[in-house]
Design brief:
The chain has about 650 residues and is α/β, with parallel strands linked by helices. The protein contains 17 helices and 29 strands. It folds into three domains: about 350 residues, Glycosidases (TIM Barrel, Alpha-Beta Barrel); about 160 residues, Class I glutamine amidotransferase (GATase) domain (Rossmann fold), CATH 3.40.50; about 90 residues, Golgi alpha-mannosidase II (Immunoglobulin-like).
Amino acid sequence: MLAFRTTRYPLYFASLFVAATFLAISIQLSLADEPKRLARSDSFVGIHFDFHASDNDKDIGANTTPEMVQTILDMVHPDFIQVDSKGHPGWSSYPTKVGSPSPGVVADSLKVWREVTARNGVALYTHYSGVWDNTAVAKHPEWAVVDKNGNRSTQNTSVFQGYREQLLVPQLLEFALDYKIDGIWVDGECWATQIDYGDAAKNAFKAATNRSDIPTDPNQDGWQEWCNFHREAFREYLRSYIKEVKTRAPNYQIASNWAFTDHMPEPVSADVDFISGDYSPNNSVNAARYSARLMANQGKPWDLMAWSFVMQPEWRAKTGVQLCREAACVLALGGAFQAYYTQNRDGSVQVSKLESMVEAAKFCRERQELCQHSSSVPQIALFCPAATHYRNVSSQGETLFPMITWQRPILYRLLEMNYSVDVLTDEALTSRISEFPVVVFYRGDLWSDELKSKVREFILNGGSVVAIGNESVDELKDAVGDFEIVDSRSKDDVWFLDVGKCGKGAMIMFPTPVGSPQEFVDANGSTFVEFLEMGLKRAFPRPLVELAERKPLDVSIRRSQAGLLTIHLVNVSGPHETAPVIEKIEPVDNVKITLNLNKRPASLRLEPSGITLDFEWKENAATTTIPSIPIHEIIVVDE
């Protein structure tokens, strides 16, 4: 029949072929005419939108107009936009052909976002809920994770079942191939993954371990192995779907929210293009301080997302100055910054809410040249022990990838003493330990043999190690072997500080206080802080940066992409730990600072203020006074 029609209507098919050819050429020309969009690795400022569409929403897409999108781009001038496509309820907010479009979809808003962002040279990413999908498990109960009592989840999919192959990959390819979206920020992934008692998971575990029993309680034999098996299953799930998508869309850029960050403090083992996370809307400064220092050392482009609002004790928008400081906590470590604004229930955006982002974006751009792609000048390394973290959280229940929070207090104490600190995972520290003058181990054990060997070599060659808590002290002693105690301090026969000598290096050891739980050292206690300061001065007598007196400033010492030595000073004063909204940040004034350098600098500049700083040069140190630090200032050392 087809051959008959072809011979009967040759002109028709010829004209159809010509029309299709011209259409393809016109599309190629249109794409060629579009401004080049930045890859995520070169992006610096972005905006995230989502609203987690439901089946009760109405008129989705009706009010998402080209004019609205253009207004957003003209206001903020972002490098990228992230926009809703499918939230945790599982309903897509665009007319997907492979997923479950919300019944309220009346227009293709995703097409509008793509057309306008492409015309402006702005990259477009979709916000997409991965493991967490209520609709998928409602329609396909066999995809749901199963709890130990045999109950199927109403929200979480199993990484062992058909969700990945039958929905996730096809929908990501729809974004990449049909909509020409630049990439995706997959939400609800590692932190939503749960232990699965479905048959597929249990059979895979039995095949991998030759165990016939499946533990259901932390006190049962094999529980840690069972938890680690699920962690590896998530990693394989992530690796496999990224590989499948990139086989057909190699330039599509993928991140899995919080993967390989302080939720998963481990080496990057999947082909993600960047790592990212949305830090807590409350107490955001402290959340960003730890996350940024770990992510900056993971060897991947990275960014952090602030929420532009708080929900406790009530919903309130953050101020522009508040977002600027949250951005500063990220920029000072070399990361990119984005902020989250909600979409209306029809998917449109109330552009008036973006005034705070206009202010934050301008703040970021003023610092971009010195911050973007900067690298750390090593001073103090704080070890983040993934093995200890995973063991401890598994012993408490079924959580697989919770954010590591128990190490944050020690970081805050180090920052309060105005030290420049990097947070490194096991493998990162093992490979880079020789770069740092000082390494701090806080409440972590399960050191690998390779790390122990590196620690011993590090100390013998002149490095200083600070070990806090019996776990870390015991691991350090085991790593070093023979050493000499050259000094001891104690208080009330409860608190102790021992200084050991081994080779050219020093060992500063804080055993767990007498009467305290074996695994706990209170990093907030006044006696411990007093001892810690004493020990750090012994371990690190001449840091690169010293303040004449303590100031509420986070110090980060970096090399800019152009190779300039830069000292980032972030004002962390005020009640940011308790106040949900910050209306005003008081400047930190009259900061006397000494830079211990190898040679006299040609000049010292304060940027972006544009001030040339007078300084005194004495004994290989430049001392200057900074008149005021409103939020984030950078000393540039012209060498």
